[in-house]
Amino acid sequence: MVAIGRDGVRRIGFNAPGEPGLELEVVSRPELCRRGGEAGLGEPHRTEFHQLMMVDAGQTWHEVDFVEYRLGPGAILWVRPGQVQRFGPPVDGELVLFTQVVPASSTSSSELALLLGDSSGGSVWHPRGPLFAGVREIARQLRVEAGCSAPSADEVRRYLLSALLLRIGRLDTAVPAPADPDGIAARFAAEVERDFAHTHRVADYADRLGYSVRTLSRASTAATGHSAREVVEARVTLEAKQLLAYTDLAAAAIGRRLGFSEPTNFGKFFLRRTGLTPGQFRRSLTR
Questions:
Q1: pLDDT at 58 (0 to 100)
Q2: Which residues have a Cβ under 8 Å from the Cβ of 180 and sit 6 or more positions away?
Q3: pTM (two decimals)
Protein backbone atom coordinates (compact mmCIF):
# COMPACT_ATOMS: atom_id res chain seq x y z
CA MET A 1 0.00 0.00 0.00
CA VAL A 2 1.43 3.40 -1.04
CA ALA A 3 0.06 6.68 0.37
CA ILE A 4 1.19 10.27 0.83
CA GLY A 5 1.70 11.11 4.49
CA ARG A 6 0.85 14.41 6.12
CA ASP A 7 4.50 15.39 5.78
CA GLY A 8 4.36 15.01 2.00
CA VAL A 9 6.59 11.92 1.98
CA ARG A 10 5.35 8.71 0.39
CA ARG A 11 4.49 6.00 2.90
CA ILE A 12 4.65 2.35 1.90
CA GLY A 13 2.66 -0.12 3.98
CA PHE A 14 3.37 -3.80 4.32
CA ASN A 15 1.57 -5.96 1.79
CA ALA A 16 0.32 -8.43 4.38
CA PRO A 17 0.44 -12.09 3.38
CA GLY A 18 -2.71 -14.13 3.12
CA GLU A 19 -1.78 -16.39 6.03
CA PRO A 20 -2.22 -15.06 9.59
CA GLY A 21 0.77 -14.75 11.89
CA LEU A 22 4.12 -13.06 11.49
CA GLU A 23 4.13 -10.56 8.62
CA LEU A 24 7.31 -11.45 6.78
CA GLU A 25 8.56 -11.42 3.21
CA VAL A 26 11.93 -12.04 1.58
CA VAL A 27 12.40 -10.45 -1.86
CA SER A 28 15.24 -9.74 -4.24
CA ARG A 29 16.09 -6.21 -5.32
CA PRO A 30 14.77 -6.85 -8.89
CA GLU A 31 11.48 -8.14 -7.42
CA LEU A 32 11.14 -4.98 -5.35
CA CYS A 33 11.85 -2.83 -8.39
CA ARG A 34 9.13 -4.53 -10.39
CA ARG A 35 6.61 -3.62 -7.72
CA GLY A 36 7.39 0.01 -7.13
CA GLY A 37 9.46 0.94 -10.14
CA GLU A 38 13.15 1.82 -10.00
CA ALA A 39 12.34 5.54 -10.16
CA GLY A 40 9.99 5.23 -7.19
CA LEU A 41 12.67 3.61 -5.05
CA GLY A 42 14.98 6.52 -5.79
CA GLU A 43 12.47 9.03 -4.40
CA PRO A 44 12.28 9.74 -0.66
CA HIS A 45 9.81 7.43 1.07
CA ARG A 46 9.01 5.88 4.42
CA THR A 47 8.09 2.28 5.06
CA GLU A 48 5.85 1.04 7.82
CA PHE A 49 7.96 -2.08 8.27
CA HIS A 50 11.54 -3.10 9.01
CA GLN A 51 13.82 -3.67 6.03
CA LEU A 52 17.06 -5.66 6.09
CA MET A 53 19.04 -5.35 2.87
CA MET A 54 21.92 -7.73 2.12
CA VAL A 55 24.18 -7.04 -0.87
CA ASP A 56 25.65 -10.01 -2.76
CA ALA A 57 27.26 -8.21 -5.70
CA GLY A 58 27.62 -4.68 -7.06
CA GLN A 59 28.18 -1.25 -5.57
CA THR A 60 25.50 1.21 -4.50
CA TRP A 61 24.55 3.86 -1.98
CA HIS A 62 21.51 4.09 0.25
CA GLU A 63 20.32 7.25 2.00
CA VAL A 64 18.62 6.95 5.40
CA ASP A 65 17.54 10.07 7.30
CA PHE A 66 20.05 12.31 5.50
CA VAL A 67 22.96 9.89 5.93
CA GLU A 68 24.36 8.23 2.80
CA TYR A 69 25.77 4.73 3.23
CA ARG A 70 28.10 3.12 0.70
CA LEU A 71 27.25 -0.54 0.20
CA GLY A 72 29.16 -3.28 -1.58
CA PRO A 73 29.31 -7.10 -1.53
CA GLY A 74 28.79 -8.40 2.00
CA ALA A 75 27.08 -5.26 3.33
CA ILE A 76 23.98 -5.40 5.52
CA LEU A 77 21.72 -2.39 6.07
CA TRP A 78 18.81 -2.17 8.53
CA VAL A 79 16.17 0.49 7.83
CA ARG A 80 13.48 0.81 10.49
CA PRO A 81 9.81 1.87 10.25
CA GLY A 82 9.31 5.59 9.76
CA GLN A 83 12.81 6.38 8.53
CA VAL A 84 13.01 8.29 5.26
CA GLN A 85 15.12 6.47 2.67
CA ARG A 86 16.21 6.57 -0.96
CA PHE A 87 17.64 3.66 -2.93
CA GLY A 88 20.76 4.04 -5.04
CA PRO A 89 21.67 2.08 -8.20
CA PRO A 90 20.44 -1.54 -8.35
CA VAL A 91 22.61 -4.34 -7.00
CA ASP A 92 22.26 -8.08 -6.55
CA GLY A 93 20.93 -8.97 -3.13
CA GLU A 94 17.95 -9.73 -1.00
CA LEU A 95 15.70 -7.86 1.42
CA VAL A 96 13.94 -9.25 4.48
CA LEU A 97 10.79 -7.25 5.20
CA PHE A 98 8.83 -7.65 8.44
CA THR A 99 6.47 -5.67 10.63
CA GLN A 100 7.25 -7.12 14.04
CA VAL A 101 8.84 -10.10 15.73
CA VAL A 102 7.82 -12.17 18.72
CA PRO A 103 11.00 -13.45 20.37
CA ALA A 104 11.48 -17.17 20.08
CA SER A 105 12.48 -17.35 23.75
CA SER A 106 12.21 -15.12 26.80
CA THR A 107 15.98 -15.01 27.24
CA SER A 108 16.40 -13.01 24.03
CA SER A 109 13.40 -10.69 24.45
CA SER A 110 15.17 -7.65 25.95
CA GLU A 111 17.98 -7.67 23.39
CA LEU A 112 15.53 -8.05 20.52
CA ALA A 113 13.30 -5.30 21.89
CA LEU A 114 16.25 -2.92 22.00
CA LEU A 115 17.33 -3.81 18.46
CA LEU A 116 13.80 -3.37 17.12
CA GLY A 117 13.21 -0.13 18.99
CA ASP A 118 16.39 1.60 17.85
CA SER A 119 14.98 4.36 15.64
CA SER A 120 18.37 6.01 15.23
CA GLY A 121 19.43 3.42 12.62
CA GLY A 122 20.42 3.13 9.28
CA SER A 123 22.64 0.63 10.98
CA VAL A 124 25.12 -0.83 8.51
CA TRP A 125 27.53 -3.74 8.86
CA HIS A 126 30.32 -5.08 6.66
CA PRO A 127 30.99 -8.54 8.13
CA ARG A 128 33.78 -10.70 6.76
CA GLY A 129 33.07 -13.70 4.54
CA PRO A 130 32.03 -16.45 6.99
CA LEU A 131 29.98 -14.07 9.15
CA PHE A 132 28.11 -12.68 6.15
CA ALA A 133 27.59 -16.20 4.79
CA GLY A 134 25.95 -17.21 8.08
CA VAL A 135 23.52 -14.29 7.91
CA ARG A 136 22.71 -15.02 4.27
CA GLU A 137 22.00 -18.67 5.04
CA ILE A 138 19.41 -17.71 7.66
CA ALA A 139 17.83 -15.32 5.15
CA ARG A 140 17.66 -18.09 2.55
CA GLN A 141 15.91 -20.36 5.04
CA LEU A 142 13.49 -17.53 5.84
CA ARG A 143 12.68 -17.18 2.15
CA VAL A 144 11.74 -20.86 1.99
CA GLU A 145 9.64 -20.68 5.15
CA ALA A 146 7.96 -17.41 4.12
CA GLY A 147 6.01 -19.28 1.47
CA CYS A 148 5.22 -22.31 3.60
CA SER A 149 1.65 -22.86 4.86
CA ALA A 150 2.38 -25.78 7.22
CA PRO A 151 0.96 -25.42 10.75
CA SER A 152 4.44 -25.05 12.20
CA ALA A 153 5.66 -22.53 9.59
CA ASP A 154 4.85 -19.41 11.59
CA GLU A 155 6.74 -20.66 14.63
CA VAL A 156 9.74 -21.57 12.45
CA ARG A 157 9.67 -18.10 10.87
CA ARG A 158 9.72 -16.47 14.31
CA TYR A 159 12.70 -18.53 15.42
CA LEU A 160 14.61 -17.85 12.20
CA LEU A 161 13.87 -14.13 12.27
CA SER A 162 14.88 -13.87 15.93
CA ALA A 163 18.11 -15.72 15.12
CA LEU A 164 18.78 -13.45 12.14
CA LEU A 165 18.33 -10.25 14.13
CA LEU A 166 20.39 -11.44 17.08
CA ARG A 167 23.16 -12.59 14.74
CA ILE A 168 23.20 -9.19 13.04
CA GLY A 169 23.06 -7.36 16.37
CA ARG A 170 26.32 -8.92 17.54
CA LEU A 171 28.29 -8.50 14.31
CA ASP A 172 30.17 -5.45 15.53
CA THR A 173 32.29 -7.13 18.18
CA ALA A 174 34.33 -3.96 18.74
CA VAL A 175 31.30 -2.34 20.38
CA PRO A 176 30.01 -3.79 23.68
CA ALA A 177 26.53 -5.26 23.51
CA PRO A 178 23.89 -2.75 24.65
CA ALA A 179 22.82 -3.16 28.26
CA ASP A 180 19.07 -3.08 28.79
CA PRO A 181 18.30 -6.18 30.86
CA ASP A 182 14.99 -4.81 32.16
CA GLY A 183 13.83 -3.43 28.81
CA ILE A 184 13.51 0.10 30.20
CA ALA A 185 15.40 1.79 27.36
CA ALA A 186 13.41 -0.10 24.74
CA ARG A 187 10.09 0.93 26.28
CA PHE A 188 11.31 4.51 26.58
CA ALA A 189 12.34 4.57 22.90
CA ALA A 190 8.89 3.29 21.90
CA GLU A 191 7.17 5.99 23.97
CA VAL A 192 9.37 8.70 22.46
CA GLU A 193 8.56 7.50 18.96
CA ARG A 194 4.87 7.60 19.78
CA ASP A 195 4.73 11.00 21.48
CA PHE A 196 7.80 13.12 20.66
CA ALA A 197 5.66 15.69 18.86
CA HIS A 198 3.55 16.32 21.96
CA THR A 199 6.02 16.37 24.83
CA HIS A 200 9.77 16.90 25.06
CA ARG A 201 9.92 16.50 28.85
CA VAL A 202 11.75 13.42 30.09
CA ALA A 203 9.68 13.65 33.28
CA ASP A 204 6.50 13.00 31.27
CA TYR A 205 7.94 9.80 29.83
CA ALA A 206 9.24 8.72 33.23
CA ASP A 207 5.81 9.22 34.82
CA ARG A 208 4.12 7.31 32.02
CA LEU A 209 6.50 4.37 32.34
CA GLY A 210 6.54 4.39 36.14
CA TYR A 211 10.22 5.23 36.66
CA SER A 212 12.13 8.16 38.05
CA VAL A 213 13.88 10.51 35.63
CA ARG A 214 17.19 9.34 37.05
CA THR A 215 16.39 5.67 36.41
CA LEU A 216 15.23 6.42 32.87
CA SER A 217 18.35 8.42 32.07
CA ARG A 218 20.65 5.75 33.48
CA ALA A 219 18.94 3.03 31.44
CA SER A 220 19.05 5.13 28.26
CA THR A 221 22.73 5.98 28.68
CA ALA A 222 23.68 2.37 29.39
CA ALA A 223 21.78 1.07 26.36
CA THR A 224 22.43 3.79 23.77
CA GLY A 225 25.26 5.97 25.06
CA HIS A 226 22.87 8.93 25.08
CA SER A 227 20.92 10.48 27.95
CA ALA A 228 17.14 10.38 27.95
CA ARG A 229 17.02 14.08 27.09
CA GLU A 230 19.38 13.55 24.15
CA VAL A 231 17.20 10.72 22.82
CA VAL A 232 14.10 12.93 22.86
CA GLU A 233 15.84 15.94 21.33
CA ALA A 234 17.51 13.86 18.62
CA ARG A 235 14.15 12.45 17.53
CA VAL A 236 12.55 15.92 17.43
CA THR A 237 15.52 17.28 15.45
CA LEU A 238 15.31 14.48 12.89
CA GLU A 239 11.60 15.05 12.32
CA ALA A 240 12.22 18.78 11.96
CA LYS A 241 14.87 18.12 9.30
CA GLN A 242 12.54 15.82 7.40
CA LEU A 243 9.70 18.33 7.42
CA LEU A 244 12.02 21.13 6.30
CA ALA A 245 13.47 18.97 3.53
CA TYR A 246 10.36 17.30 2.13
CA THR A 247 7.54 19.81 2.67
CA ASP A 248 6.82 23.45 1.97
CA LEU A 249 5.53 24.04 5.49
CA ALA A 250 6.71 27.26 7.09
CA ALA A 251 9.14 26.91 9.98
CA ALA A 252 6.49 28.23 12.37
CA ALA A 253 4.03 25.53 11.25
CA ILE A 254 6.69 22.85 11.65
CA GLY A 255 7.44 24.13 15.14
CA ARG A 256 3.77 23.90 16.11
CA ARG A 257 3.53 20.39 14.68
CA LEU A 258 6.50 19.37 16.84
CA GLY A 259 5.07 20.76 20.06
CA PHE A 260 6.72 24.20 20.27
CA SER A 261 4.32 26.88 21.50
CA GLU A 262 6.30 29.74 19.93
CA PRO A 263 8.20 29.89 16.59
CA THR A 264 11.17 31.48 18.35
CA ASN A 265 11.44 28.51 20.69
CA PHE A 266 11.60 26.13 17.74
CA GLY A 267 14.18 28.32 16.00
CA LYS A 268 16.41 28.45 19.08
CA PHE A 269 16.10 24.67 19.58
CA PHE A 270 16.97 23.89 15.97
CA LEU A 271 19.92 26.31 15.98
CA ARG A 272 21.29 24.78 19.18
CA ARG A 273 20.96 21.25 17.80
CA THR A 274 22.26 21.80 14.26
CA GLY A 275 24.18 25.08 14.20
CA LEU A 276 21.76 26.36 11.54
CA THR A 277 18.45 28.18 11.61
CA PRO A 278 15.54 26.32 9.97
CA GLY A 279 15.78 28.64 6.97
CA GLN A 280 19.52 28.10 6.60
CA PHE A 281 19.07 24.33 6.77
CA ARG A 282 16.35 24.38 4.10
CA ARG A 283 18.46 26.56 1.79
CA SER A 284 21.48 24.29 2.26
CA LEU A 285 19.56 21.40 0.67
CA THR A 286 19.22 23.21 -2.66
CA ARG A 287 22.89 23.99 -3.20
A1: 94
A2: 110, 111, 113, 114, 186, 219, 222, 223
A3: 0.73
